[in-house]
Amino acid sequence: MPYKRPMTEKVLFKKYEYAYDEYYDCYICPNNEILSYSTTDKSGYKLYKSNPKICKNCPMRE
Predict the structure, then answer these.
(1) How would you classify the pairing of strands 19-21 and 46-49?
(2) pTM summary value
(3) How many domains in the chain?
(4) Facing residues of 19 across strands?
(5) Distances in Å between the alpha carbon of 38 and those of 6, 60, 61?
(6) SS3 content of the chain, % helix, strand, coil (to 5)
(7) Residue 51 domain-assigned?
(8) Alpha-carbon distance 18 to 16, whole Å?
């Protein structure tokens, strides 16, 4: 079989476009909205989540 690139889902923003605020332990998206700490997964990675109501009306989604 020939080589085929992995098909990944299309993401709105790249990881490097988010800014981390060490003092408040949160990330800030390019639209200046906060992604708060949610939980830590089994691998030890911290997960940050945004408010879906805010993201639903984001002007940068278009």
Answers:
(1) unpaired
(2) 0.73
(3) 1
(4) 28
(5) 29, 23, 23
(6) 20, 25, 55
(7) yes
(8) 5
Q: Is residue 56 part of a domain?
A: yes
Alpha carbon distance 53, 27 (integer Å): 17
The domain of 47 spans 15-61
pLDDT tens per residue, range 6-50 = 777 777 788 889 999 999 999 999 999 999 999 999 999 999 999
Q: Decide if 45 is inside a domain.
A: yes
Residue 27's CB: how many other CB atoms inside 10 A?
19
Backbone dihedral angles phi then psi of residue 56, each to the nearest 5 degrees? -60, -35
The two structure tokens encoding residue 14: 């790249």
Whole-Å CA distances, 45 to 41, 48, 53, 55: 6, 10, 25, 23
Whether residue 5 lies inside any domain: the answer is: no
DSSP state of 46: E
